[in-house]
Model the fold of this input.
Amino acid sequence: MNGDAAATRPPWSLLALDRAFRACWAADTCSPDDLPDWRPDNPSVGHCDITTLVVNDLSAATSWSPPSAGPDPRTATTGGTASPTASNST
Done:
C-alpha cells in the first residue's frame, strides 16, 4: 500500500484508547516533575502532555482549544522577537 497507514485503520474507540493508555501509564514513564504525585490508583498523573499529543495525532486535529478572541499577548511577535507584556517587561 502506498497511503498513510492511519487512513486505512479503523478509528479508535474510547474504550480501546483507555485500555492502551492504561497499559502504558506507569511511574517509569511519568514526567519527572510529577513523579512525587504519581500513584497506581491514578496512573495518568504526569502523562498529560504525551497523552494529549497521541490523541491529537489519532484524531488528525491540530487543536482542541476553544477559538481565541484575538491574538495571545504571550505569543505575539514583533519583527521576529517576542513583544513585551505587562507581566514580563522590565
